[in-house]
Amino acid sequence: MALTEQQLADIAAQREQRATTRRVTVPALEEILFTPTPVLDHGFVRVIDYMGDDGAIVQAARVSYGRGTKRTLEDAGLIRYLIRHRHSTPFEMCEIKFHVKLPIFVARQWIRHRTANVNEYSARYSVLDREFYIPAADQLAAQSTANHQGRGDVLQGEEAAHVLDLLREDSARNYDHYAEMLNENADGTAIDPGRQGLARELARMNLSLNYYTQWYWKTDLHNLLHFLSLRADSHAQYEIRVYAEAMIAMLKAWVPATYQAFVDYRLGAATLSAQMLETVKRMLAGDAVEQAASGLSKREWAELMAVLGRGEG
Amino acid sequence: MALTEQQLADIAAQREQRATTRRVTVPALEEILFTPTPVLDHGFVRVIDYMGDDGAIVQAARVSYGRGTKRTLEDAGLIRYLIRHRHSTPFEMCEIKFHVKLPIFVARQWIRHRTANVNEYSARYSVLDREFYIPAADQLAAQSTANHQGRGDVLQGEEAAHVLDLLREDSARNYDHYAEMLNENADGTAIDPGRQGLARELARMNLSLNYYTQWYWKTDLHNLLHFLSLRADSHAQYEIRVYAEAMIAMLKAWVPATYQAFVDYRLGAATLSAQMLETVKRMLAGDAVEQAASGLSKREWAELMAVLGRGEG
Amino acid sequence: MALTEQQLADIAAQREQRATTRRVTVPALEEILFTPTPVLDHGFVRVIDYMGDDGAIVQAARVSYGRGTKRTLEDAGLIRYLIRHRHSTPFEMCEIKFHVKLPIFVARQWIRHRTANVNEYSARYSVLDREFYIPAADQLAAQSTANHQGRGDVLQGEEAAHVLDLLREDSARNYDHYAEMLNENADGTAIDPGRQGLARELARMNLSLNYYTQWYWKTDLHNLLHFLSLRADSHAQYEIRVYAEAMIAMLKAWVPATYQAFVDYRLGAATLSAQMLETVKRMLAGDAVEQAASGLSKREWAELMAVLGRGEG
Amino acid sequence: MALTEQQLADIAAQREQRATTRRVTVPALEEILFTPTPVLDHGFVRVIDYMGDDGAIVQAARVSYGRGTKRTLEDAGLIRYLIRHRHSTPFEMCEIKFHVKLPIFVARQWIRHRTANVNEYSARYSVLDREFYIPAADQLAAQSTANHQGRGDVLQGEEAAHVLDLLREDSARNYDHYAEMLNENADGTAIDPGRQGLARELARMNLSLNYYTQWYWKTDLHNLLHFLSLRADSHAQYEIRVYAEAMIAMLKAWVPATYQAFVDYRLGAATLSAQMLETVKRMLAGDAVEQAASGLSKREWAELMAVLGRGEG
What pLDDT is stored for residue B313 in this prediction? Predict the structure, then answer.
């Protein structure tokens, strides 16, 4: 992540501002407000505003006139109960707004979460920066042979080097030609005053999907947890998972009781099907259950054994 | 509106709290934060939290790193442009949370606005208060004879008095029987220790639709404007319109530039159909257009004349 | 449920209509299309339109040009995989529309599912029928002493009889006064031609929450499954659960493979928290785990033992 | 648009299928069901399923038990009334599903309409085809000098030829390298059996934004009209407008009464602000209003004059 002088100054100015408010305030989140956490080679995520805290969830669940109990232990217990029983509406009473810089192919996955508000930098209106994502060497994975939608071993040696060369060269060339079609130098002057320059909304189509875009993304806490549980999951693509992980650290600063319930009842939890439950019951009763007789497919059996921490059963 | 001592104390305590924040803060809204505005005979609406201000809209439209220009005139111009051209996403970046006490039949209209977050007081879990809505004398309207869905003249004399008696007596009796079925006195003690009492989730069905409920209702600014434009409209039922009007005053304190654009481009604006526009063009050209030859139905013609401030044309 | 002659004739006429279509069609659902399933004392639910079938889910998951494989076994396997891994978007490609008649207090719970389309009968515009819900004797439950939000034993003898009398009398009286305020007989004529009659939008407030309303309710299959999993749950209020159960029978006729996956991975499944999983692992390893040392609260421990089919552990 | 033999056969097979249904059916839409309408150089849009018709809107507005009046004139009148007064819920009772092939930069605009269901072809899972969008000569527009977000004159001569060369060469090279990194020939065989090939979810990032993707897109009629009014607008980018225009032709076949109301009250209509209405009133009263004294900005004045069909006033 390389922010310009101007951007760093803007962020510093935001962090300088102070006001007095009657609203609920979270000191631990104020501490990191506006500060970007670097993600990937040029991306970042930062919190730029928020509404509510753990107490606001309790207050909403009780539709109370005042601030709520402030009895931390009881409140945490209620929050755990609400998460466990999927009472989602009290969590919708907290809201958070992020500023995110991310590669376009990551943005295309992210935007599928529809219950959020988004304002994206417009390449119809403005010129994109010369910033593209190149995977780190340890993330340059081969196609998985076991799973159509996954990564296998990390590429090595010549193949790895060649892939990185292709990605770098194509990205750079595509940007050079983007600027040439726009007829615009980096400082905004015309490359050739005799030419008109292609419309921005057309020229952008020459950029590849690893170019960085940025947006403001605002969502309520319930939908944030849903987003994080899907995108911090091991099945999620690495390039979006790292954003989710950075945001989980911010979640912890913001609503620590909700964070802990989320870890216990979502991230660390598992859903067992009717057949899986039946299998566990038989195992507890001492039966030597095997996959073939379990009613589970091989894949489900493997999933269950993984959840129970047993090699292949 | 009769708040209990405890409720007043809770509200006062909320208004006492002060914290320092790096977030955008709106002094004019802080001024009225938590204070209930009375609506109807026992209802109220109050703001209990908010995120963003006029500047946050500008900032989102530009996806900027910093606070935005702070050049008030330019910002207001951009906000007017965004409203006029229905660029709605920057307005979604501001959020507001209300606490509302309202009759159930009003709540049933209100809840149809789906793009909002709601936590309602649960009559499955708790006992409702003995508070019901009785229309003021000047709102006791007859069924309109012109419009299936509207009010006509205000009822007078004996008919009015009789209606008010029926509403009052039935509401009171329904509550008495609700408490009797629950087997619960106002102080929570059993009326008859020898009885079990009907489940709350069942007993509530004996209450009528004018009973008050309450909820926390949170929405973004774009959806708030949509709600207000529909519910402050003259076609909206009076009992919801008064809530919308109270909320428009809060809107003005919160985002004054957006408020003014909303007044000019929504509340005070009119949409003219293709045929209406054609009629206006002909009128401007000096033609003596009449309804029959205008291509407009009688009702549309009357609507157009009303918009143009001309009796019946 | 007592439908009028006219309503029965309308429904019969709908069932008579036949057309040829190129669209995907489900014979088992066509069989029951438009036919109301009675629910509670005067309610019903019926399917009035649908789009898609199990095959449409498979087709969407593959974004295929044609109809999909039609290899039933493989398709069912893919559907199970999608449900298990919470890939929800393919299920959004199927849509269903219901006509439901239900008590207002049930409608108020139901409407909280926001991702659906609703058109409700308007009591601002029309007069409601004289139909209200009275619980059957075996559903007249006392307030639970263990659970704030639940039912205990069924009321017996005098207390039960008295409750039913109160509900019946108040409901009947409220309707009589509703009609009197409207100044309208059942046949639409004026009770007293010398009176104007109160506006419908006001008079309705005298009706109690057990009055029946009706609506068209349309949703996609993903959101239907979510609705059904919450409302067919044992924690849901009986009066909405019976609707969910009637709809599950329709789900089975419509999309049998999805229905089976829903039964196995939702209705019959259980989510175990991180601590619960740890406990199960220790039990499988032969440890004699007890609640106190399990890291589970008493309530969670009881939930886990219930899921594992063990009395109190 | 160049469909493969297999795709054409799949589509033909879909069009062959016939079933008998009790559902509402629209012969004019059945006529074109599944048939792709070509859009841009390789894209298309086709209807693959639908629910409801004009009559279903009327039926929902009345929450009727039967089919509705079938009195075409009255129904059209009600539909016009509903559109004019923005009663949107009855239009949500109709649903339509499209299969669309479109450039990625168009998909990125389209997906911002959140109230729709989408299943997109997955480049994590599958290999994309070698198809990219190259603008036709008459659409190769320069950046507008008047409007940051618009097109100016069409590029001519050498500049145009050069731009087309750059777009074509970069797109082709990017695909060649995509295949090389994947280590996959067009027939799925390995280019070099000694290499592993980069994971698909990574390799795709080398493709540019003019590559075609495809999806199933399903929405209700209310949200479809909203989409079409924004995307068929003259301010929309040409490359998405052509899709909207193709879909409007399908709308006309599906719900002709709604289509006509949409043309009259949306596409051909204009919203006048409070100040614009005041200006029109003064003009009708014979005043020689000028921009400076009108209370309108220059831009608003120009917009009003355009709406009234008057050069510059």
Answer: 45
Can you say whether the dihedral through the CA atoms of A56, A58, A63, A65 is positive or negative?
A: negative
C-alpha D118/C-alpha D130 separation (Å) is 23
* Cα–Cα distance for residue pair B70/B55, rounded to 1 Å: 7
Burial of A192 (0-12, 13-18, 19+ CB in 10 A): exposed
Catalytic, C231? Answer yes
Q: Is C144 helix (H, G, I), strand (E, B) or coil?
A: coil
Total-model pTM: 0.96
Q: Which residues of D touch C9 (CB under 8 A)?
A: 66
Name the catalytic one among B231, B241, B282, B299: B231
Q: How big is the CA angle at A103 (ends A98 and A104), to the nearest 5 degrees? A: 100
- The amino acid at residue C70 is K
- List the single best residue of B121, B125, B209 to mutate versus C (max C Cβ within 10 A): B209
pLDDT, tens only, B218-240: 999 999 999 999 999 988 999 99
Positions of A marked active-site = 231
Contact C273 A84 (CB under 8 A): yes
Q: Which two tokens stand for residue D176?
A: 């060649």
- The pLDDT tens digits of the residues spanning A276-306 come to 999 999 999 999 899 998 989 998 999 999 9
A54: region left, alpha or beta (phi > 0 left; psi from -120 to 50 alpha)? alpha
Q: What's the pLDDT band for C313 if we cut at 50, 70, 90?
A: very low
Instruction: State pLDDT tens for residues B172-202.
Output: 999 999 999 999 998 889 999 999 999 999 9
- C10 and chain D in contact, CB less than 8 A: yes
C-alpha to C-alpha distance for C250 and B68, rounded to whole angstroms: 55
Contact (CB<8Å) A220/B117? yes
CB distance from C218 to chain B under 8 Å?
A: no
Q: With 0-12 CB in 10 A as exposed, 13-18 as middle and 19+ as buried, what is D65?
A: buried
Q: What is the predicted pLDDT for the residue at B63?
A: 86
- Predicted local distance difference test score (pLDDT) of residue C2: 75
* CA pair distance C203, C183, nearest whole angstrom: 10
**Among D124, D112, D115, D69, CA closest to D92:** D115
Distance CA D200, CA D78 (A): 52
ipTM rounded to 2 decimals? 0.94
Domain boundaries, chain D: 5-128+210-267, 137-206, 274-307
Q: What is the pLDDT along chain D (313 residues), one digit of tens a residue?
A: 578 999 999 999 999 999 999 999 999 999 999 999 999 999 999 999 999 999 999 999 988 877 655 566 788 999 999 999 999 999 999 999 999 999 999 999 999 999 999 999 999 989 999 999 999 999 999 998 877 778 889 999 999 999 999 999 999 999 999 999 999 998 889 999 999 999 999 999 999 999 999 999 999 999 999 999 999 998 899 999 999 999 999 999 999 999 999 999 999 999 999 999 999 999 999 998 999 989 899 989 999 999 998 865 4
State the pLDDT at residue D68. Answer: 59
> Which position has the token pair 């527009």?
D141
Contact A208 D210 (CB under 8 A): no
From chain A, pick out residues whose CB is under 8 angstroms from the CB of D143: 182, 196-200
Q: Is B145 on the interface with A (CB under 8 A)?
A: no
Instruction: Supply angle C-alpha A241, A247, A252, rounded to 5.
Output: 130
Tokens of C24: 């995907």
CB pairs under 8 A between A and C: 76
Chains with 3 or more CB pairs closer than 8 angstroms to C? A, B, D
Please tell me if residue B284 touches chain D, with a CB cutoff of 8 Å.
yes
What is the distance between the alpha carbons of residues B242 and A60, in angstroms, rounded to a whole number? 24
- Partner residue opposite C205 with nearest CB, options B144, B151, B208: B208
Residues D5-128+210-267, CATH architecture:
2-Layer Sandwich (3.30)
